[in-house]
Amino acid sequence: MIAGCPGCGRRHAWPGAVPERCPACGGGPLHEDPEAPIPEAELAGVAEVDARRLQALLETWAAETPCRPAALDAAALARDATRAWWPVWLADVDVRGAWTAQAGLVEDVESTIEELQGGRWVTRRVRRPELRHVPRLGTVDRRYDNLVVPALPAPPSLLSTPRIGVYEADGAPWLLPEIDGEARAAPLEQAIVAAVREDLVRAMECRDVRDLDLKREPTPAFWTFLLVPVWVTRWTDEDGKVQAVVVNAVTGSIAGRRQGSRRQARARLWQGLGFALLTVFGAVALGAVGLLVPIVLPLAVLALLVAIVPAGWGVGQLQAVTTFNRAEAARWTPSAPD
Amino acid sequence: MSWTPPAGFVPAPSKVPGIEVYAPGQAAAETRPTCPRCGAPAGFDPARGRFGCSRCDWTEAAGAASDGPGTFTREALREGQRGWGATRKLVHCDGCGAEVLLPEGTIATVCTFCASAQLRAGAAEEGLRPHGVLPFVLTPAEAKQKARVWLGRGWQNPKDLDRATVERLQGVYLPFWRFSASVEARWRARVGYVHRETVRDHRGHQHVRETVRWRNEDGEVRERYADVLVSGTEDVPEALLARLFPAQMEAIVPYQPELIADFVARAFVRPLAEAWEDGRGRMREQAEEACRRTIHGDHVEAFAMRAAFADERWEYVLLPVYIASYGYQDKPWLLLVNGRTGEVVGPKPVAWARVLLAMALCLVPGVLGLIVPPVGLVLLGLGLLAMIWIGWGAWQSERGAA
Asked: Which residues in chain B have their CB less than 8 angstroms from residue A107's CB?
């Protein structure tokens, strides 16, 4: 049975009874669509991440968050996690065409530093590696098998499936493809260009390949529908927004947005500034004593210097959370995590 | 799939089956280029700015691929790319020591540089292949016309110089090293600032007293230097060449053997490493000047500077020059014409009698003015300066430096 979530818009195929709540966002109730056709799964990734390992992975993932909020708890995430299948297309295609690119070659170059001292120039020679891009072109005539083409917008790490077997229904729902039919052409071209680029780097033994332009003959692609086993869970951030977390059950890679707690960071900032203020008071007191007993004066100066430490720590906490949250926001969109 | 690589690309190694790689380069052509339509000898036609056939109306745009300017790798400094891409005959002149590369089939009777007939054939040349060529635009007839106009110019030169015959005008591609680099220069110095203050002496008179206040200062300058040209030949005076180039360097096209098929091409004799020393020295001096310009003080002492070079690039280019000689009073004179701009340089005979007369005339107002001493002395001074200027100009003209 196909059912859609009014909250996140995702549609799932449920082999059994449709649950009340969406496994991804926790919204509901799910709208059933008995008429919608269910695509036939041909292959499936072999799950290797069980519930226990899932918690360990989530713990590592969440632990990287500075000022981790209480809701971003690995045990809670693992408890709410449900098994699902993430749809992926695999394409087999013959690539024949011509390419042009700039190959990045690393060269060991000789450079110089000139110093003018006392009216005389002294030359010092230095060697350093330098990346130089040079024009290259040629042809490609190769078959590429199992090119991964997303069926749902997702980061590449989530689509990786080193071990593939035959799909066997296990009661877990599938997420339905949103990229299908003709819409697969553009991501397929991207996958082909990425594969050719990788081969060109190996072929020319260069550091990188840029400005790759591939003009290939139109050849048919053979598609296979693959399901990647995933764990889907969620947590609620400080703004009350539900953040979906998807764990690839084959590789263990995690796609989901983390957020450091701004509240905690602010609290730590005030703590740090409070300690710094107390130390400054202490320094002033020592300074006053120092007027009578001069030997105490260096201690007052030392106390002033020590005050920098808690103040810096507090500012550092806030800075770390702000930077981390910005980086996560930049690479995460609800449709393309990671 | 039918696909052929564009002109100027040759197969390069590939480590992956099914992937063919082509890189800029030239397959060694053992014969002179021919017209693809009629088979007649083909070459670059300066008048049309394209390759053309000597018999039919076939033409093709000039242009090839290139890896671009080279870096200073150990291999580049040692040997670089080898081979001109076409067999060219090496001729050695026992008169001036010049080595000239001639197109295959060309028979040279006199040296392009010294007009000597003591030519000796050498082995076929296999040297560093040029990166780029600045093709000729001027035809020999146009170059000759420019030379005639140039000969007729200048009051200090003999009047009958415009009747001198321009002989043995020959288009030659001269070798140049073209350098570019970024320089990050840091300097420090003691900079003195002059302060003027008005003081009164014990008699109450006001005086302006100057004092210098010294400060330790430092600064940084980042500059990119491009088109620093160092001649690869020692047969043509570099001072003359420096007045012809750089010019129109943006019109340099990647080297193709066909481009220079109908011209004499001079092989470089100054190796890359030696030329780079020279080019780097010039950049270093320009960086020093740039640093000194940022100092606004009145005096500078203990100026020290550190220039770190980065992104250094070199190119071996062939630049078009018509080399000719003209005879005047049984003496041969060298003449160079820029094959693109038509600028003419070279030493010129001087009509010294006329120059000396002009110099003497410069002194006349001063001598007459001696009757009124203060004005006369000023006029005499000015006359002496004018005399020196005229004499210097004439001497430079005779040396070709004017």
From this structure: 71, 73
Which amino acid belongs to residue B181?
A: A
The C-alpha of A160 sits at a distance from chain B's nearest C-alpha, in angstroms, of 24
Angle made by CA atoms B372, B376, B381, in degrees to the nearest 5: 165
**Interface ipTM > 0.85:** no
Count CB neighbours of A268 within 10 A.
Answer: 22
| Rounded-to-integer distance, Cα B82 and Cα A98, Å | 28
Tell how far CA A192 is from the center of its chain: 22
The number of C-beta contacts closer than 8 angstroms across A and B is 107
Q: Round to the nearest angstrom and report the end-to-end CA distance of chain A.
A: 30
For residues A282 and A269, what is the distance between their CA atoms, to the nearest angstrom?
Answer: 20
Per-residue model confidence as pLDDT tens for chain B (402 residues): 678 888 778 899 999 999 999 998 755 544 456 677 777 776 667 666 666 776 777 776 655 666 777 787 777 776 544 444 444 566 666 666 666 666 554 545 556 666 665 666 555 555 677 888 898 888 888 998 898 888 888 888 888 887 788 877 888 889 899 999 999 999 999 999 999 888 888 888 888 888 999 999 999 999 999 999 999 888 788 888 888 888 888 888 888 777 776 778 877 878 888 889 999 999 999 999 999 999 999 999 999 999 999 989 998 899 999 998 888 887 888 889 999 999 998 888 888 888 888 888 887 777 777 777 777 778 878 888 888 888 888 887 777 665
> Do residues A22 and A5 touch, judged by C-beta distance below 8 A?
yes
Compare all CA atoms of chain B with the CA of A143 and give the residue at the minimum distance. Answer: B18
pTM for this predicted structure: 0.66
CB burial string B210-230: b at 16+ within 10 A, e below: eeeeeeeeeeebebebeebbb
Task: Kindly state whether B131 is in contact with chain A, defined as any CB-CB distance less than 8 angstroms.
Answer: no
Which tokens go with A169? 């229904």
Peptide bond into B41 cis (omega under 30): no
**B contact residues 284-323, partner A, Cβ 8 Å cutoff:** 284, 288, 303-312
Cβ within 8 Å, pair B307-A117: no
CB A256 within 8 A of CB A243: yes
Calculate the CA dihedral of residues B105, B109, B115, B118 and round it to 10 degrees. 110
Q: A32 touching B, CB under 8 A? A: no
Contacts of B67 in chain A (CB under 8 A): 134-135
